[in-house]
Amino acid sequence: MAKEPLPELVSLSISAWSFKARFALKHNGIKYRTTPYMPMFGEFFLRMRLGDWKSKVTVPVMFTPRDGILHQSYDIARWSDTHSARPGAERLFPDGKEPEIRSWNAKSDTVLFFGRQCLVDSLLSDPAQLRKTVPGGLRWLGPLGVALLRLIVTRLATKYRAEGSSTSLAQALEVLREAQSVLRAQGGGGSLRGRYLVGGGFTYADIAIAVASQTVKPLGPPYATSPRPPLPQFQAYQEEFADLLEWRDGVFAQFWPMDSERKAGKAQ
Ligand SMILES: N[C@@H](CCC(=O)N[C@@H](CS)C(=O)NCC(=O)O)C(=O)O
């Protein structure tokens, strides 16, 4: 019998949405192959594969062997839960909790949309930061790599202006404050480690907010392999969100499936 092809994740390593999807896939022990996506240059080929020349194309996109194409990180995470290959993996979408989890994911997107706007602005206004952020695949090009990155970031700024300007620092901070206070409300003080946003157990809501809290303080390797510059707009809030960041570090320490990556010899 012919072997079923692996699902294929088209992903952008620096992107928080690709990060959310990868976390869920790894949590569920899904074997998949990754096709790196390069904004602007990769868009034509992705559109060709999708047969879509009209809608806004974003990544991650997952090509599944039997269930068609998944266009949203959230749908990829849900798919991973119904195709989990890891016995005993916590269900990321327990029965009856989906609306609450969906709402936390939307809140995570509010933070991330604003965070992306800040990232794009800071890269365009700070050449030193832009140089530091050139991805490995473009570094060999030297100054041309920096020029290409500037072009890509300028294009992203235009493409995502609507999402960026529909959110604000105040809204992003409100989400993070809400998450921190929901976690704090669950116990008698002390560390927030081991607490969860929904239903007393680890769910995709925790992944979504843990990833969004990178806006306040980026995660480094081994979890995030692409360099992600700190966002100036959020620096002043690191102290206020110290508990949330400690919780976030706990989520990654406990749930990011490191072993499979170590075995594969590299992080994806
Ligand atoms: N709603 C989408 C959002 C994904 C998204 O905004 N992806 C951006 C990440 S920066 C992207 O694909 N950028 C590259 C491009 O637009 O070419 C999801 O959750 O998957």
UniProtKB/TrEMBL annotation:
Signal peptide: none annotated. It comes from the Eukaryota. Coiled coil: none annotated. Residues 15-82 form the GST N-terminal domain. Pfam families: GST_N_2. This is GST N-terminal domain-containing protein. The lineage of its organism: Eukaryota, Viridiplantae, Chlorophyta, core chlorophytes, Chlorophyceae.
